[in-house]
Amino acid sequence: MDKKNTLEQRNEELAALNAIAASINQTRNLDQALKLALDKIEAAFGLQYSEIWLLDKQKNSLFLRTHRGLPTEFVQQVPSFKTGQGLTGTVAKTKRPLLITDLATNLKYLRQRARRYNLQGALGIPLLAQEQVVGVMNIFFRKSPRISTETVTSLETVGHLIGAAIENAGLFDKLQKQTQELSALYETALATGSVLDTDILLRRLHEQTQKSISPDALMVALYKHDTDQFEIALTCEQGKIIKPQINSSYSFEKGGLFSEVMRSRQPLLVTDMQSHYISAAPELISQSTRTWLGVPLIARNQIIGVVSIQSFKPYAFSQTERRFLEAIAGQVAVALDNARLFESERRRRQEIEAVQRGSLSLIASLELPQVLEAILKATLNLIPVMDTHIFLYSDEKKLTFGAAMWADGRRLDHPFSEPRQHGLTYTVAQSGKMIIVEDMKTHSLFSNTPSEWDGSILGIPLKIGNRVVGVMSIAFSQARRFPQSDLDTLNLLAAQAAIAIENARLFERSQQEINKRKETTEALRKSEEKYRLLIEQSNDAIYFLRNDRFELVNRKFEELFGYSKAEATASTFSLMDLVASKSRQLTLERQEKRRRGETLPSRYEFTALHKSGREFEVELSVSEFVYQDSMAVQGILRDISDRKRFETQLRQAQKMESISQLAGGIAHDFNNILMSINGLTTLSLKNAQPETSLHNDLKTIHSQTERAARLVNQLLTFARRQSLETKALNLNRVIRELSELLQRIVGKNINMGTALDSNLLDIHGDIGALEQILTGLYLNAGDAMQGEGNIQITTQNIYLDEAYCQALPSAAPGQYVLLSISDTGSGMDEETLARIYDPFFTTKEVGKGTGLGLAVTFGLMQQLHGFIEVSSSQGQGSAFNLYFPAIVHPDEPLPFEQNKPVAIISKRILLIEDEPVLRKVVAQVLERDGYQVTTAHNGQEAFDLLKSGQIITDLIITDFIMPKMRGDELYKAVKTLDLSPEPQFIFVSGYGKADIETQLQVDLATQIEFIRGECLATSGFQIYLCQCLALRFRAAANQSIRDHETPRPDRRPFPALPAQGSLPLSLSLPD
Fold this sequence. Notes:
By secondary structure, the protein is α+β, with helices and mostly antiparallel strands. The chain has 7 domains: 2-176, Beta-Lactamase (2-Layer Sandwich), CATH 3.30.450; 193-345, 2-Layer Sandwich (Beta-Lactamase), CATH 3.30.450; 365-510, Beta-Lactamase; 538-639, PAS domain (Beta-Lactamase), CATH 3.30.450; 657-710; 727-885, Heat Shock Protein 90, CATH 3.30.565.10; 908-1066, Rossmann fold. The protein has 27 helices and 36 strands. Strand 33, helix 25 (967-975) and strand 34 (984-988) form a beta-alpha-beta unit. Helix 19 runs antiparallel to helix 22. The longest helix is centred in the middle third of the chain and has 53 residues, at 484-536. The protein starts with a helix and ends in a 5-residue tail after the last strand. The model is unreliable at 354-359, 892-905, 1012-1024 and 1034-1071 (pLDDT under 50).
């Protein structure tokens, strides 16, 4: 029978192998094939927890590719394994399966992770392709694995199948890349073959490279042979072309890897720049380059530049990208060389045409710079000279530099201040005759000149009759003789040049006179135009008033008051037509005082009147001046309605903040008093005889204390003294879950309608706070409709821009979730609207409302970083719009919950509380339950007791905010003592950890834990605290107590832990 079962199991495994092989071969997508394989393995072998690692041969490391059944944080803890490292690396190195039956005791493989995630065993299977490791498949077991040799063999076969699939996928990807490269090369040839424009060529190179490789950055450097430098002609980052810098030329010394490629004329691939000795300069991109690949651009056996692709990640490129870039660079180099030749020829033709135009402009132009340039160009066109200069006589009869040009068209950037005294130029000017110097080395005029001055030179006077207006010198690079024909031609050119220069100077002087008149006229026109434009384009209303009549109003004046310019400047129109009745007396008094000559503030505010009768607030600035022998007034009016509204809202916010601080302080103090009363009442109730007068009185006190506690809790919520436990929530879900409750709140006769956005974003919210907000608003709506009407609740995503938020002090621009609750109730007047958030303000009868409902809602919305807008009018109902900041980028999912282990705590407790009554109550309850309690009234006293050795304790329960030494200071001080056993700490505070860190500006240690109550619960905060502590201690130390002592028979049974949701505090202990 066993053989038959074994045979059947073997047949099933073989069938599973066939199924796995078939599923893997169904797709060319590697990730899909791997996931299908793991699914089939689980179905065939019942192996739920598995992962696959792929080998990177270049890095000699394995990286996780996919997993099944394992928590995300488990697989993310180790990003990679070196070959030979851990279970994965060992299997890759040995190429053999490795079975580990007990991970907890195995020091080499996964011990820590196995303990944390309750993994008992593991099996590593090599993934082989042609006897070479391409990856490893790990399978984990929750229990000690009982796996047969045949199953391991079957899994090995699966490993071969998966390895072959990985190999085939790699070959398929390689074939695809080769196809893409050939296609890209063909497209590049088509795109560049007929283009003779360098910029277009470079853009097409960028497009093809981006399409085929998609590098993070691309740069093209072009070599300039005349200067032995190169310039960056193209820079692209993240697929976008970056505007070139002004100075993008670089020498070979500062060219980094670009210079290296140009020198070697060979491609260069640097897989990790951090380990390379040459920089990737020039740095024109925003991020650091990690992988750099450069290929030379060579045409006609000459280097013309370098094309480089770069990545911000190491090892991003391989020989595949290098081969592709070499191929595309060869085509682009030829195209760039053709474009350069075409550009050179085009420039040559332009120069010839420019010389011809210059000759014509010699007699056509009247602008002196243009005339001088035309003379120089005509000279260079006539004779192959090295350079030519022109010096002109100024009005002071001094020779000054006019213009200079070299044979290649270069001009002199820094002109000579004046020619050499007793040199060629001055001698020609003084004599008025041409001087010919065939060899400067032997001529007397150049006997004291620098040795590098050589060649020949002509000095030609520029004369009008007998008057010399300037000198033109023409230099040649070598000594030479001058034929008479050349001298005659140059003399004729000089005569024409002198006439052209004289005409240009006369024209220049006349133009100066004309321009001076034009400038004066233009300045006056511009001044008037500027004043007119300033008035017309101003965002303030501006008027010009003379003899109590408007002579000028601007566009904004028309918009602000509704009157046209014709209406405002009519003789019957006056300033009082713009003033509302409640401000007319103020305006008349100011006008009267101004007539009497009294000094008045230049700026004041009043209520203005629109043509339609609408009133609004304005600010007026006035200035007086004399205009055409009479006094005139210029006024600037600005609509300050928004500013006034903002100031009102700001005052309201400041008032609410002051009230909340006062209410919070009072509530916190009352909370401490109520804790004591509730604690003592609870203890007294246990000792009083039931059904007695004393017992009934104590129950009454206890009940009234709870009622007071609820009111205090509302005050603390309003004052934002209660911390909220926020998490990502969807408002639609909260509304749906509360719908039945909300219907019961308002009654069956009220219709509830909803319009919930199905794509609503999440918010950071506290479920209790949201429930309190919704129920409070529904209660108000139900009261306003007196049992009949309609309530509509809607949700939507909304973006508030900066312009909208300027009028709201509590709002910031961004994405929000809008919750709107509207009713058809009685509505509210303006006076009620102004006070709805005031604490204790209510429109209900005495005893039917606390007046804290909307105040609490206001406080909760501020704690949730949201805000409220309300619109209402009497008889028209009310609408509350609540804006919650939306979670635009949702947080990562939280890891699955893990129970934190609780340390075993024995019965010796040091209790520290500065309130005597609270200290007494807590100590009594703990002692009643069998704990040995020592008390101290502040941290310093407790520290002295511990330091002196007067007491030994296992646990310290302490208040946080105390005189002399706070709780965190005590914690740090105790840590410096050598105590055995080392006591554990539990902090009890009405504030949350985050609140304490914010208010006291302290950074609490992460291991410090808090027990915090939400003010008072039904059983009383401190009493309930002690019960929960005792229950926790009993559970944590239960096993230890059973091992060492027998519990007393007279011990009372401990009360059961309340159901989830009724616990008024959160309890967590330090590890």
